[in-house]
Design goal:
There is one protein chain. The protein has 330 residues and is of the alpha/beta class. It folds into two domains: 212 residues, D-Maltodextrin-Binding Protein, domain 2 (3-Layer(aba) Sandwich); 109 residues, D-Maltodextrin-Binding Protein, domain 2 (3-Layer(aba) Sandwich), CATH 3.40.190. The protein has a five-stranded mixed beta sheet with strand order 2-1-3-10-4, with helices on both faces. A five-stranded mixed beta sheet has the order 7-6-8-5-9, with helices on both faces. It is globular, with a radius of gyration of 19 Å. The two termini are 38 Å apart.
Length: 330
C-alpha cells in the first residue's frame, strides 16, 4: 500500500514540475504549493485565493493535492515545489534524514483528526460511542483502521493512545478521499480523517464518530499542538525570503478573515467543497474554526510534539541535536 501511494505521489509531484515561476505581470508570481489532502485542515489555505489574499501579495498559487503529508514533504525536498502544507512529524523525519525543512506558518493548531467507526462494527463490539474514552480505545483492538500515512500524526496519536490501554490497532494507509468508500464496502472497520472527509458516512448513517481530536477526546500527551504547517526547504526560504514573507502574510490575513469575514470565508470554502450542506459547514466551522486560527509555533510547541511522537513509539534517534528555534522562520 505504501509503495502504491509513493508511486502515485511521484506522478503528482511530476505534475507540479514545469509550472512557470511567473505568469503575466498583471497576475503576479506563480507559486506551486503541495497539499497533503483535500481535507479542510490540510488544504484550507486554498480559500485564501478567492478571498483575494494571494493577489494582495502579488502571488498566484498553483495547488497540487498529494496523497499524504509525507508525499507533500517529498515535493519540497525534491524541489518540485517551493512550499507545501505538511506535519511536524514529517518535518522532523526529514531533518533526521539530512533534509532541512522550516515552518513558515502554523496552519492548524491542535489535533484535527476524527476517528469514524463503521456503525455495523460498533454494534458488533458492543461499546457505545458515549462510553469512556479508555473503553472506546480498547474496543479498537484488532480493528482495521485507515490513516493517511505511516508517518502521519493521525497514525501516531491513535496508535499511541490505543497502546496505552493495551489495544493493538491494525493500520492501513489510504488517501482520505477514498476512506468513506472503503468503509462503505467493508474493506476497513474505520478511518481517521479530518473535515470534511469524516462527515459523509456520519450523515448517511453508515458510520459514527468514535473519537474526536478537535473535541480533545484523546489524552493531551497523545495529541500534537500543531497538525499542519506551511513549510519550505531551508535553502529555499533563505534564498527567497520575500516569498517566505509573503506566504506568511497570506496566512496571517486568512486568520483575520476567519474572525472578521465569516460569511466570505464560508462562501470561499464552498467553492472547493460545494457538497457541504449549510448545517455541515456550520458544524465544522464552529468545531474547528478555532484551530484554523492557528497561533504561531514556538520551540516549546515543537518540543511537546517531539515528546508526543516519542511516546507513540516513533523512532527519532538524534532529534535532540536539532535546534528547535531554527525550525521556525520569523
Amino acid at each position: 500500500m505504501l509503495r502504491r501511494n509513493f508511486l502515485s505521489g511521484l506522478c503528482a509531484i511530476a505534475a507540479v514540475q514545469g509550472i512557470g515561476e511567473r505568469t503575466s505581470a498583471q497576475e503576479g508570481a506563480s507559486v506551486p504549493i503541495a497539499l497533503p489532502s483535500t481535507s479542510l485542515g490540510g488544504s484550507l489555505i486554498r480559500i485564501a485565493e478567492p478571498l483575494g489574499l494571494f493577489q494582495k501579495q502579488g502571488l498566484v498559487p498553483k495547488f497540487t493535492v498529494m496523497e499524504s503529508a509525507n508525499i507533500a514533504s517529498t515535493a519540497i525536498i525534491s524541489r518540485s515545489t517551493p512550499a507545501a502544507i505538511s506535519g511536524t512529524s514529517e518535518l522532523l523525519f526529514a531533518h533526521l534524514r539530512g533534509q532541512e525543512l522550516v515552518i513558515i506558518a502554523n496552519t492548524f493548531s491542535g489535533f484535527g483528526a476524527t476517528l469514524v467507526l463503521s456503525k455495523q462494527v460498533a454494534g458488533r463490539i458492543g461499546i457505545d460511542s458515549s462510553a469512556p474514552v479508555p473503553d472506546r480505545l480498547k474496543a479498537l483492538n484488532g480493528l482495521m483502521i485507515a490513516s493517511p500515512s505511516a508517518t502521519s500524526d493521525y497514525t501516531f496519536s491513535f496508535r499511541g493512545a490505543a497502546r496505552a490501554v493495551g489495544a493493538d490497532v491494525r493500520f492501513t494507509f489510504l488517501d482520505q478521499t477514498t476512506m468513506a468508500a472503503a468503509l462503505q464496502s467493508g474493506a476497513i472497520d474505520g478511518y481517521v480523517a479530518s473535515a470534511p472527509n469524516w462527515v459523509p458516512p456520519v450523515l448517511s448513517g453508515v458510520g459514527i464518530i468514535w473519537l474526536s481530536g478537535p473535541k480533545s477526546d484523546l489524552p493531551s500527551n497523545f495529541m500534537p499542538r500543531s497538525s499542519s504547517s506551511l513549510q519550505m526547504r531551508r535553502d529555499t526560504a533563505v534564498g527567497n525570503p520575500e516569498l517566505a514573507r509573503k506566504l506568511a502574510a497570506v496566512h496571517a490575513d486568512l486568520v483575520r478573515a476567519i474572525d472578521e469575514r465569516p460569511d466570505d470565508v464560508k462562501t470561499a470554502i464552498l467553492k472547493f467543497w460545494p457538497n457541504l450542506s449549510p448545517p455541515a459547514l456550520d458544524l465544522i466551522y464552529s468545531s474547528e474554526g478555532a484551530s484554523w486560527k492557528a497561533k504561531a509555533l514556538m520551540p516549546d510547541d515543537i518540543a511537546h510534539d517531539i515528546e508526543f511522537l516519542k511516546s507513540t513509539g516513533a523512532k527519532l534517534d538524534g532529534v535532540e541535536k536539532i535546534n528547535l528555534e531554527s525550525l521556525i522562520v520569523r
